[in-house]
Amino acid sequence: MINASLKQLSQALAAKQISSVELTQLFLDRINRLNPLLNAFVTVDAEKSLNSARAADARIAAGTAGPLTGIPIAQKDIFCAEGWRTTCGSKMLANFVSPYDATVIRKMEAEAGLVSLGKTNMDEFAMGSSNETSFFGPVKNPWDQTRVPGGSSGGSAAAVAARLAPAATGTDTGGSIRQPAALCNLTGLKPTYGVVSRYGMIAFASSLDQGGPMAASAEDCALLLNTMAGFDEHDSTSLDRPSEDYARDLEKPLAGLRIGLPKEFFGEGCEAEVMAAVRAAIAEYEKLGATTVEVSLPNSHLSVPAYYVIAPAEASSNLSRFDGVRYGYRAPEYGSLDDMYMKSRAQGFGAEVKRRILIGAYVLSHGYYDAYYLQAQRIRRLIANDFVEAFKNCDVIMGPTSPTTAFKLGEKAADPVQMYLSDIYTIAVNLAGLPGMSVPCGLVGGLPVGLQLIGNYFTEAQLLNVAHRYQQATDWHQRRPAGLE
Amino acid sequence: MSLTLEQVQRIAHLARIEISDTEALSTQGHLNGIFQLIEQMQAVDTRGVEPMAHAQDLSQRLRRDQVTEEDRRTAYQTVAPETEAGLYLVPKVIE
Question: B55 falls in which pLDDT band (50, 70, 90)?
Answer without folding.
Answer: confident
